[in-house]
Design brief:
The chain is an alpha/beta fold. The protein folds into two domains: about 5-115, 3-Layer(aba) Sandwich (Rossmann fold); about 125-270 and about 300-315, Dihydrodipicolinate Reductase, domain 2 (2-Layer Sandwich), CATH 3.30.360. Helices cover about 35% and strands about 25% of the residues. The protein has helices at about 10-25, 35-45, 55-60, 80-85, 100-115, 125-140, 160-165, 165-185, 270-285, 295-315; strands spanning about 5-10, 25-35, 50, 65-70, 90, 115-120, 140-150, 185-195, 210-220, 225-230, 235-245, 245-250, 255-260, 265. An eight-stranded mixed β-sheet has the order 8-9-10-7-11-12-13-14. Helix 1 packs across helix 9 and helix 5 runs antiparallel to helix 10. The radius of gyration is 20 Å and the shape is globular. Bound molecules: nicotinamide-adenine-dinucleotide (NAD). The site of nicotinamide-adenine-dinucleotide has 26 residues, from helix 1 and helix 4.
Length: about 325
């Protein structure tokens, strides 16, 4: 059965998913919704789909089996609500919101609807992440060090806190998700940030911090330092390292290296950006029970990101929402 996909958001990550769905087969995009009409029209025309500017209209006009929401952080809510009101399976790109209000509301709707969900936290689909978790089950982590060292993404909304949420919410969130996956829930965070616009920065340079450093304590007692910067000229690295007694792990999208008595290198088997879509389609078809990055997990990671952002803003320690 070919699944009919309604796409909300017609930007670069939406196009990436379209490419993956095309390669995988078994799904076709039937509608494209984007308030920026040229973007919606262009992608819809390429795909032989219908273009809309409102997700409710799109889902009323063209029947769909699942909805992909690929919008910037500030634009979450309408696409998810339109899908969930109709009981449709839902894939949401990360982060699942700007702050917590909309994301918590959608999280409650997801619970009530009981639909299949997937999210863009594709690091969870790395077989190397699974291997790291197995190794850490034998030798629990005491310390982690994670980082996202990058340039500013060239999208107009990214530099503004009220549009993107800042780099911790937008990018470091992948590493935070891995930290939760490997170390458990965070119970307290403290963070600080710096913003220093370069001389001659354009008026629209924005207001997000250029660098953030956080310390995090997990419910196991493990501690972590997590850092992000967008001040570089190109993406340098993003990774999570862990320290257990006698074991050091380095995990990135490119691979896992384990240092024990000897060094072992593991390479990912499949591109996780493909796996994340494949597993969502399988779950929608009932071929698997759930995805590896369902909405509830993404929401818990987003709570941690928001706690770090809030601590950097306020200068005081914060307990991530939902940990009591
Ligand atoms: N998982 C990943 O690896 C990954 C990679 C890239 C981007 N992303 C995430 O995807 C999101 C989008 O990023 P992007 O690079 O595609 O941005 P983009 O700016 O290229 O595209 C966003 C699109 O959303 C549209 N949009 C804005 N408000 C909308 C609304 N209310 N309804 C529908 N469409 C709306 C915009 O007009 C634009 O066409 C970001 O949150 C980003 O972090 C994830």
């Amino acid at each position: 059965m070919t699944l009919r996909i309604a796409l909300v958001g017609a930007g670069s990550v939406a196009r990436r998913h379209v490419g993956v769905l095309h390669r995988l087969g078994g799904a076709r995009v039937v509608s494209v919704t984007d308030p920026h009409e040229p973007a919606a029209e262009a992608l819809a025309t390429e795909l032989g789909a219908a273009a809309f500017h409102d997700p409710e209209q799109a889902l009323d006009a063209v029947a769909a089996d699942a909805v992909y929401v690929c919008v910037p952080p500030f634009a979450h809510g309408p696409g998810e609500r339109a899908a969930l009101r109709r009981g449709l399976p839902l894939f949401v790109e990360k982060p699942v919101g700007l702050g917590l209000d909309v994301a918590e509301q959608i999280g409650a709707m997801v619970e009530a609807a009981g639909v299949v969900t997937g999210t863009g936290y594709h690091w969870r689909c790395l077989d190397t992440a699974g291997r790291a978790r197995e190794l850490l089950a034998e030798s629990p982590p005491l310390l982690a060090n994670g980082y996202w060292l990058d340039k500013r993404p060239p999208v107009p909304w990214w530099g503004w806190t009220e549009r993107s949420g800042g780099q911790v919410v937008e990018q470091l969130t992948h590493v935070l998700d891995m930290a939760r996956y490997l170390l458990g829930e965070a119970v307290e965070v403290y963070a600080a940030g710096i913003r220093k616009a370069p001389d001659g920065a354009p008026q629209d340079f924005g207001d997000v911090d250029d660098a953030t450093a956080a310390t995090v304590r997990f419910d196991s007692g493990a501690v972590a330092t997590l850092a992000a910067t967008s001040a570089l000229a190109a993406k340098h690295r993003a990774a999570l390292h862990t320290v257990s007694r006698g074991l050091y792990l380095e995990l990135s999208e490119d691979g896992l290296t384990a240092f024990a008595a000897e060094r072992t290198d593991h390479c990912p088997g499949e591109d996780p950006r493909v796996t994340v879509d494949r597993e969502f389609l399988e779950a929608v078809r009932g071929e698997r029970e759930a995805t590896r990055a369902p909405y509830g997990e993404a929401l818990r990671t987003h709570r941690l990101a928001c706690a770090i952002a809030e601590s950097a803003r306020s200068g005081v320690p914060v307990r991530p929402g939902g940990t009591g």
